[in-house]
Design a protein that fits this description.
By secondary structure, the protein is an all-alpha fold. The protein contains 10 helices and no strands.
Length: 257
Amino acid sequence: MSSGWLTLLYKELLRFWKVAFQTILAPVITALLYLLIFSHTLEGRVSVYDGRVGYTAFLIPGLVMMSVLQNAFANSSSSLIQSKITGNLIFILLPPLSPLEIFGAYVLAAMGRGLVVGGGVFLVTLWFAPPGFLAGFPHPFWTLAFACLGSAILGTLGLIAGIWAEKFDQLAAFQNFVILPLTFLSGVFYSIHSLPPFWQGLSRFNPFFYMIDGFRYGFFGLSDVPPATSLLVVGGSALGLSLVTLLLLQRGYKLRQ
C-alpha cells in the first residue's frame, strides 16, 4: 500500500476540521436540543427496560450513536459529490491509488468525523444525565465496537451514495428517504418492546436498530436483542457493504466519465 492514501486521508480529515463550526458544533447543538425536548416531555412517562433505566439515561446513548451515524454518512457522501460536481475528482483518480486505498481514506475520515461528533454529544449531554449515569457503564468495549462499526458502515454508505448521485438533489433524496428513516426508526427515542408486535418484527429488519441497541448495551448491560446477535448483523453488514463499494470503485462506476 502506497503512502498516497495517507495524503487523501489527511485531506479528508482537514476538510471537515477546517469548518468545525458547521461539521462538529452544529450537530452537537442539534442533539442537545433533542435531549432537552424529549427528556423534558417524556421523562417519567415512558418506561424503559421495565423501569430499570430512566428515559433521559436511555436517550443519551441513542442520540450519541445517531450523531455518529449521520455525520459519518455526511462526511464521505458530501466530499465525493462535491469532487464530482466541481471536477476535481480527477486528482483522486489519476494518482496510482488502489480502490482499497481510496475506500480506506474516505471511510476512515468519515469514522473520524462521526466519532468526534459523537464524543462531543456525549460530553455535552453528560451535564443533563441523571446521577450515577456512568457508574453503571459495564461494557465500554461493546460501546466502542459498535461506534466504530456503525461509523464505518455509514461512511461506506456515504461512498455508495456519492458514487451513485450525480447532483446534490439525488444525494439529498438518498439521505432523506433512506438514511433518516432508518435512523429515526431504529430505537433512538424508544425501545422496540414498546411497539406493537408487527412493528417490533419490522424493526428487526433495520440494521440501524442493531447498531444502536448494541451501542446502548455497553452503557446499561441491557438490550432489546442479545448483543452478540447485534454484532453479527452489524459486522456482516459492514463486510457486505465494503465489498460492494470496493467493486464499484474498481469498475469506476459513475466516476470515470
